[in-house]
Structure formats: structure tokens, C-alpha cells
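Key result, reporting period 2: structure in, sequence out.
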């Protein structure tokens, strides 16, 4: 692993024990984020994006979930091998911006109480008194552009708009001084105009603090606007990775092409094509390429899992259509 790498998932396998049997959801998923990078993880609903996030920050319900293999590395430490104080310290290097601001703030506590608690129980809050905590809370709310931060500290979440609640959550994520932000569909519940404001705010905060961010979304517009690199995930498998501009100019995997072609067009070019079929039941996934049942290019060999074939360190595709691609840097997990 590079000494500079902030975050890396290597060959992560996650499943769920159900009455019908075991659901093998994440199938050796691998990705990484370097310092200062904005990385996107993209796929349809049900493709395993949020499971990846939950396994990373430790909120995966075990049982019924289980981690069958792989590693999750934060600042060089595999959090799956840590316990107690060391685990809490390493997890403290990450912060989450959740997707639903209305459901993520406790309705019975004031904004100031929740924000100051986030500071108090982080390394950034050690040794701070009540007045210092309040000043720090006001400062971070000002940084994220919440109007009249002193007054809003005394408000309950129900008194704030959706955009204001999301700013509070971004403040709670930033105030702990993380190395990595994980944003799980951070604009899904917002109006389009507010979404643009929140994305600008997040970009400014990440650039100003030189943070890394992993943004999890199904919105290709957000990805194109915000990220430097992109991973495409389908049914728990990473099917393609590339710099953002490269991906949109020349997608390789049939699934990636289908996603891009599914975006509604405003130029009079007709209705978006879409992708036939749907994400498979994880009880019945193929042992090979999981996209094969929906793929117009599927071949007999697709019953075997394709290897992620790389061009350089950032461009790769897991598809037998590109078997001749030069594998210069090994697989994604190397």
C-alpha cells in the first residue's frame, strides 16, 4: 500500500445470513482514495454502495451481516483487525455525511446540543470547556454558511429547512478534523437548487482543509460535477474505474455505458434508453460476471468472474470484452 494512501478497501467480502441461505453481497470489492482526492462510488440502488459504507464506518448489523474476507485500511491501519481504543481512534479519522438530514438529527435535542456533543466526544474536543465548545460550534456553522449560527444553535431540527439541516450535518462531519469524508447520497433529499449549493459548499470545505472524500451516489450529474475519479459498482462487484473525465468520454464496461445512456436528455434526442432487467436477487447471482444476465454482449466465458484489468494505476475494467487490455499494474487490490 502507498504510504500516502488515506483509504483503501481490498477484496472486501460481505454477506448476510438469511432464512433462505446466505446472501453474498460484496464480492471482493476494492477501491482506494488518495490524499486530497474526490472519489465517486456509483451504481443503481441495491448494488452494494451503502453496504460498503456501513462496513467501513462500523454500523453494519452483525449479525445478520458478516465480513467473510478482505481488509478496510484507514491511514494504513486495517480496522477489521483493531479493537478498543485503537479502533475508535482510527475510525475517528473518518466522518460521515448521511443522505437524509431529516432523519439524521435527533428531533428532541437542540442543534447546539448535538453539534457540541459531536465536538466533545472527538479528539478535537479534548480539554474544551463549555464556552469553548460553543465558540467552536458557532465557528463551524459559520464556515458551512448557516445563517445566524448563534440563534440556530438554540433551534430544534424541525425549525430548520432541509438545506440548513444538511449544513449542520456537514458541520458535524468537519468539526472532528477527519482525514476522510464519506458522503452517502448527500443531496438526494434536497431540491436541485439547494443540491448545487451543498455541492459547492462540500467542494470548498474539502479543498480548504485538503481532505479526501468518497461520495456514494447513483446521480451521474453529481459525479461528473464533483469527483476526480469514479468506481462503478454492480451487484457488489466493481466493474470499472477511471478518472471522471475519461469515464464519461469513453466508458468501457457495458454496465457503465448503460448508466450513462440512461440519463434523461434535454436536447430533443428522445427518451433515455435505460438498461433492460434489474439488479439480481443476491440468492441467485452468477458466480461469474453478475451483469451478464442483463448484458447484450454476454459470452459463455462470462460464467467465470472477470479480472479487473488495468491501464496505469487509475483506469481499469472487469470485462472479457477487454481481455487484451495490458495489465500493467496488476489488479485493483494489489
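The corresponding designed sequence is given below.
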Amino acid at each position: 500500500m502507498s504510504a500516502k494512501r488515506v483509504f483503501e478497501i481490498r477484496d472486501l467480502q460481505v454477506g448476510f445470513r438469511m432464512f433462505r441461505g446466505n446472501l453474498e453481497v460484496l464480492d471482493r470489492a476494492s477501491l482506494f482514495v488518495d490524499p486530497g482526492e474526490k472519489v465517486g462510488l456509483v451504481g443503481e440502488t441495491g448494488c452494494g454502495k451503502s453496504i460498503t459504507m456501513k462496513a467501513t464506518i462500523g454500523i453494519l448489523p452483525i449479525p445478520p451481516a458478516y465480513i467473510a474476507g478482505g481488509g478496510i485500511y484507514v491511514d494504513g491501519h486495517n480496522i477489521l483487525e483493531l479493537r478498543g481504543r485503537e479502533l475508535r481512534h482510527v475510525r475517528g479519522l473518518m466522518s460521515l455525511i448521511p443522505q437524509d438530514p431529516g432523519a439524521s438529527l435527533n428531533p428532541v435535542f437542540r442543534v447546539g446540543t448535538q453539534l457540541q456533543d459531536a465536538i466533545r466526544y472527538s479528539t478535537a474536543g479534548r480539554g474544551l470547556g463549555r464556552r469553548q465548545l460553543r465558540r467552536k460550534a458557532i465557528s463551524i456553522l459559520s464556515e458551512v454558511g448557516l445563517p445566524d449560527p448563534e440563534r440556530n444553535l438554540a433551534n430544534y431540527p424541525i425549525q430548520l429547512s432541509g438545506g440548513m439541516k444538511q449544513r449542520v450535518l456537514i458541520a458535524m462531519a468537519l468539526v472532528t478534523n477527519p482525514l476522510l469524508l464519506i458522503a452517502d447520497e448527500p443531496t438526494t433529499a434536497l431540491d436541485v437548487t439547494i443540491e448545487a449549493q451543498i455541492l459547492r459548499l462540500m467542494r470548498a470545505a474539502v479543498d480548504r482543509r485538503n481532505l479526501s472524500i468518497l461520495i456514494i451516489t447513483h446521480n451521474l450529474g453529481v459525479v461528473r460535477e464533483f469527483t476526480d475519479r469514479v468506481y462503478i459498482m454492480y451487484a457488489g462487484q466493481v466493474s470499472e474505474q477511471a478518472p471522471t473525465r475519461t469515464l464519461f468520454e469513453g466508458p468501457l464496461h457495458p454496465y457503465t455505458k448503460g448508466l450513462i445512456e440512461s440519463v434523461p436528455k434535454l436536447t430533443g434526442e428522445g427518451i433515455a434508453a435505460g438498461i433492460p432487467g434489474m439488479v439480481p436477487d443476491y440468492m441467485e447471482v452468477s458466480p461469474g460476471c453478475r451483469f451478464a444476465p442483463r448484458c447484450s454482449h454476454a459470452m459463455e466465458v462470462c460464467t467465470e468472474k472477470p479480472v479487473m484489468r488495468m491501464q496505469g494505476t487509475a483506469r481499469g475494467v472487469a470485462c472479457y470484452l477487454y481481455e487484451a487490455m495490458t495489465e500493467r499494474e496488476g489488479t485493483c487490490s494489489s
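The first strand starts at residue 7 and ends at 18. The chain has a mean pLDDT of 83. This case is discussed further under Risks and Mitigation.
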